[in-house]
């Protein structure tokens, strides 16, 4: 499998709707309006940019600009690592240190999950969007909010911060389970 395409795929799956929308807007002068309207994912956008040779394995400057403009420094550093080393392990190959923690939290928090998410400073607008996307599934709402927090914080998303927020919400039993 092509490592560059794997990298673009991982970027695509980590983009929020707002970030994709911002990237589409920034490509307005490079991609015709009809084509741009058909873009539904980062993969669609990257495919068009690859076809038009706006991004290539050898020239990623436009992609760097896009990532910088949408303030995704985490993706920008992965791209720079790819350019420097020729390859970055796909996220599927690397264990996510938060995955187990998020599962423990989702299994143990319950109805007071919004208090926890607000303690992590996720905006009510984002919370409401996630709730609307996952009606009648509290566990998935919490999981997606934690994912959104993780994307928002990037490298600053630490398990210690989750534990502090849990303790701040008097969810000490869950915090103890996360620490284990």
TrEMBL record:
Entry annotated with the keyword Phosphoprotein: yes
Entry keywords, A to Z: Apoptosis, Cytoplasm, Immunity, Innate immunity, Phosphoprotein
Span of domain Death: 98-180
This protein's GO CC annotations: CD95 death-inducing signaling complex; cytoplasm
Keyword field contains Phosphoprotein: yes
Residues in DED domain copies: 3-81
Transmembrane segments: none
SUPFAM superfamilies assigned: DEATH domain
Domain of life: Eukaryota
Swiss-Prot/TrEMBL GO biological process terms: extrinsic apoptotic signaling pathway; innate immune response; positive regulation of cytokine production; positive regulation of extrinsic apoptotic signaling pathway; positive regulation of innate immune response
Localization annotation: Cytoplasm
Oligomeric form and interacting partners: Can self-associate. Component of the AIM2 PANoptosome complex, a multiprotein complex that drives inflammatory cell death (PANoptosis). Component of the death-induced signaling complex (DISC) composed of cell surface receptor FAS/CD95 or TNFRSF1A, adapter protein FADD and the CASP8 protease; recruitment of CASP8 to the complex is required for processing of CASP8 into the p18 and p10 subunits. Interacts (via death domain) with FAS (via death domain).
Protein name stated in the entry: FAS-associated death domain protein
Species in which this protein is naturally found: Ramphastos sulfuratus
Classification of source organism: Eukaryota, Metazoa, Chordata, Craniata, Vertebrata
């Amino acid at each position: 499998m092509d490592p560059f395409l794997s990298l673009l795929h991982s970027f695509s799956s980590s983009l929020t709707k707002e970030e994709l929308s911002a990237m589409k807007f920034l490509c307005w002068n490079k991609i015709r309006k009809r084509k741009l309207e058909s873009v539904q994912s980062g993969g669609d956008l990257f495919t068009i940019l690859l076809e038009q040779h706006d991004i290539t394995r050898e020239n990623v400057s436009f992609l760097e600009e896009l990532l910088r403009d949408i303030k995704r420094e985490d993706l920008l550093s992965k791209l720079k690592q790819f350019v420097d080393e020729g390859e970055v392990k796909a996220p599927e190959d690397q264990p996510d240190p938060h995955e187990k923690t998020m599962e423990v939290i989702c299994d143990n928090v319950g109805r007071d999950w919004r208090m926890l998410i607000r303690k992590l400073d996720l905006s009510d607008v984002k919370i409401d969007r996630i709730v609307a996307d996952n009606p009648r599934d509290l566990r998935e709402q919490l999981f997606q909010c934690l994912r959104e927090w993780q994307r928002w914080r990037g490298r600053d998303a630490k398990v210690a911060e989750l534990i502090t927020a849990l303790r701040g919400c008097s969810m000490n039993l869950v915090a103890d389970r996360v620490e284990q």
